[in-house]
Queue: 4 jobs
Job 1
Amino acid sequence: MQQYLTSRYAGTGGSIKLTPEDFCVEEIPAYLPAGEGEHLYLWVEKRNCSTLHLVQLLAEKLQLKPAAIGYAGLKDKRATTRQWISVSAPSEIDAETLSTLDLGAAIKILSVTRHSNKLRLGHLRGNRFKLNVHSVVPDGLERAQNIIHILEHTGVPNLFGAQRYGVRANNHIIGDAILRADFARAVQEIIGAPATISNIHWQKAAQAFADGDIDTAITVMPRQMRDERRLLQALRGGASAKKAVLSMGKKILRLYLSAYQAHIFDRQVQMRLDSLDTLWPGDIACIHASGACFRVENPAAEQTRADAFEISPTGLMPGKKAMLAHGQAGMLESALLEKEALPVENYSALNGLQVSAARRPLRVRAEGLTCGMEDDILTLEFSLPAGSYATSLLREIVKAQ
């Protein structure tokens, strides 16, 4: 049974993402390009296209390595999104070349300029959303307004979005297997059990792999699943499960490892839903304006700042060099870590894939949160800080049955 911060209020019900236009996202950059510098900056609008697919497409079209393409954040595939992309390109590739580049009907390059540095993950303030929810209940607007009132005062549970866990919701399981050096289990989870896969071609590939027919698995695996195909090709070439998994590349492997961290963090959010805005003894609080963290020595004295949404309690993203909470908050974290029974040294066991600990606020503020309704379609508009997910707010309002 799902848990909600606003459980005493009925949800609106309804369906999201029936079309890419139902989920519109616009990046709020940390800075605007200066207009000069060695890196080309592209303001791109894309429809039904993931950020990683765009990166791959640009690299192929420009005959560059994917590492030459920078981005500040990953955006949903089934959506209409606008974001900045940077290109580190040789001099023969200029703004005019990029502005006339044909990337298909789903991708539009709206403008091209220059800046002095490459875009990197985290170089953004947040994202602005406009979402449509179809087929909500007749009193959906009133229900949404009641829930929004709570979210504005308490904050939005800072849960990770479903996309962090992948289409089969098992990225964290793969990350767990990698951290425990159980690479055979990681392979099985990456390829997947046929019965759990809806894509017919992927399902056939998974069945062929289960039957020991790697050649057929490679042949029928969807071409866009490049990482999975690379894994299978490594296995066919005689690589061990460990070498095959590591051959997939650091980008996808870091995604699996971060999903494991996200899973542990989300459990902490769920355990503290009744006190997201309340500081506990021993908490480590985050200052929203700066992102800095400090240990709470006197919860009563600091609570006024939490009430003003200046600070919030944080949860642990486990890894090496962790800053652990003490007291009541520390007991919760320790219990989770003890249950995981993952040695701290495992976070540093793989060269180039070390997992560093971090603290993340248990709640965030949704700025400019408004809603409207026409017929049975509820429209929501709001902004969230970088690293937070619209689906975390949406789940509170819709409340899946």
Job 2
Amino acid sequence: MSTKEIKSTKHILVDLNDEGILTITMNRPQKKNAMNVEFTFEMQNLLMAVAASKEVRVVILKGAGDGFCAGMDIKDFFDLSEHDEDSLSSAKEVANHWRVRLLRKLPQPTIAMVHGFCYGGAFAIVEACDIAFCADSTNFALSEINFGHFPAGPVAKSLALAMHSRAASYYSLSGRPFNGKEAESSGFITKSWPDGELEAETIKLAQELVKKDPIALQFTKESLEHVKSMEWDAALSYNSAKFAELKTLQKGASSRATSVANFLDGKFKPGLGS
């Protein structure tokens, strides 16, 4: 897929600047940016195009209007008057796929810029991003318990990964809302900013990341993701192999013979560098 395929759709706005910073805006403000069936397929296609793009260096994900995202548009996902059963079943799979896999595994760094509100299924979007900034006044809520439900789909796993365990239990069992500062202290948000500073600080970070080596950024993401489930010996071996691959990719294929020679001469040790 080419950068030409990274374009705005009915429910998603995109803006790619000259620095390589792509801003993705969930654009259903009249529905609090809740994710409906059509949006779900649009996001899947967009993220596939972003993953294949060399021009996109950093991704910012935000919501249009008054807030970030109110979660799933449950009414649309069960509306058999508008969708057939096969389409709804496929949409539910894709809704999980783009949050659990596609967004998380983008080679580019991703920053969630959360303002206004973040509810339910939107927690999985924020957790899948590498870095999450929010405004102090942002309202977060896991209100499923108040309706006799629970954080379903990828949300429970997202909470377990990003939140301190006590905080995850407290907010999901009580259904009590919390603000940006509380989200930061829970571990769910990287940093909460005063409302007027959120956008500027997000852009500042994106501009900082753009200046770094893109392959090193990608490998940092991959390493952090994969070593979580590894034993120490496996993690050390994995990162030694990734280090050697990194240097080859950064210098080009012609550097492989030199790297091997340096290793044999004792000038290079995988995992330690020169």
Job 3
Amino acid sequence: MQKDERLDNSSPQPGVSEQQQVITRQLFKAATTLSHIDELFLWLARTIIQRFDVQVTEFWTMRGNASGQAAIELRAIACQDTSLPPHVVGNYQVSAMAEHILREQRHLTLVAMASIFPAHQANLLSRYGLNYCCGYFLSTQPTGFDLSSESTSSVSTASSLLFLRHALPQDRLASIGLILEQTIPIAKYRGLLVPAQLQAFSSPPQRQPQPDLLELTPRRSHNAELMRSSNPLASSVDIVDKQARRLYAAIDGRKNVDELSSTTGLNVKEMYAAVQILLVQQRIELYEPGGQRVTNLSL
């Protein structure tokens, strides 16, 4: 694989658009109705081509085997043009690029097809009006994760390839990236990473269904309030994590997580991490819309 300089090691960072926030919330809610990560990939692929004028969206993962080797696998694809032949965007050259993103663990900045594909592949894509490509690395694992450890029972890394007719503005590409980055964490939270074939033969789950995090209302715990009243100097300042500190300061006992996301400017992924920190530190408790305290939330 050539043209490594096209890979960007940083996450897209421009401002979060209103459309991005809406789709992220829809993604979180869609995850409550689906049973597997592939269904979530497909839902998101279709949403991206509908909302962002992207012609093709693909999701790829690495699947390991008993010998410890990993092979690239296409998990979901959505095309604006349903007559597009599968071999145009699902061949060896395309899979090699998706695998390269996974192994390098970097995003692929928007580039012309001729910059990353051999001439015959670039010409084939151009023939169908696909002139630009970009890619995103998705993961819940830190950089340096060993792809050979991927198994048939879990998905912790993925790459997404987007094919476009025209170059999109950077802020729109950044919004897409922010949405995509939250896909696997949301799927993990919703328990969608178990393969469908294992779900089909497993016994019904014994645990209670997980409530929708966005609809839960965090309240400061009595222990935290007692500590604060006994020591006027104790406040949210001693919360080391900046995002958790921002969330804790905004909690008023009335706003739910969705509303606090808008108040604090934190996206769903950041809110999830902040809530987890505050729960571990026993600073907050979560309550359902009816006022019942949540005691069985699995984070």
Job 4
Amino acid sequence: MNLKHLAHWLALAETGSFSRAAEKLHITQSALSRSIQVLEEELGGPLVDRIGKKNELTPLGQSVLERARRIVHEAQELRQGAALLQQGGLGSLRVGLGSGPGAMLMTPWLQHMAEHHPTVQVAVSRGSTELQLVQLRERQLDALVVDVRRVDAAPDLKMAHIVEMRAGFVCRQGHPILARQPESVPFEALLTYPIASTPLSQEVARTMVDHYGPRANPAQMTTLQCEEISSLIDVVRRTDAIFLGIVGAARQGLADGSLVELVLDPPFRGGAQLALITLAGRTELPVMAVFRSFVTHWLTD
């Protein structure tokens, strides 16, 4: 099967128009029509219904679409990877980071690449896990580092466990609740202050409720919520808000004494299971090995 015909078919399926697809491919409409016709003959049926000015995918066309997209993209990646290896290059990398991993990894990763691989193009994307999974599947991102418990298992995803990181409650030095320390803090005492957190998985929510009862459900308990842990930590430094999340994300403040981890009664035993997620079967560029090694070392250090 000719890759060119598949690429032509993808352009038609994505634009929905012979004229726009031909323009995108820099070929004539007649050449595009002939290419699609050859592919339809090979596959044994029509891929698109031509209804007036509209073009709709047939059931066969729908079934072919995703596999054709994967084949064409992997062929492009193979060519790119081969060319880079011939030139001694590493390629480029676009990664998505969940809220906790982003707070811990983004600056060190960019600094590492600037110092050790200054000619490699790297991009870091932040956002919800749900959005980043869509971007990964559409090949807008090459890899994700997220809490695996927020991801449903799927045959097209390859999940490599990295580390389990402890979660807890953190406040600013001088917070009124610290008057109870060094004794442990009753959970109910937290609820008199704003609770700042990222969106949490259902598993973490169940753990919270099991530990402390219905009032600990993050959907009701959390008053300040966003995907950016760094913003939440800044708010905690400046107010009486209390952070709930991966303790490692606050390690700089804990190290310099500006932040304090609270000891609860009973102790909280929860955490995030961080994983590196890629598309199964996708050809990896050499720089992916650099990223995988860095993430594993940094998060388990």
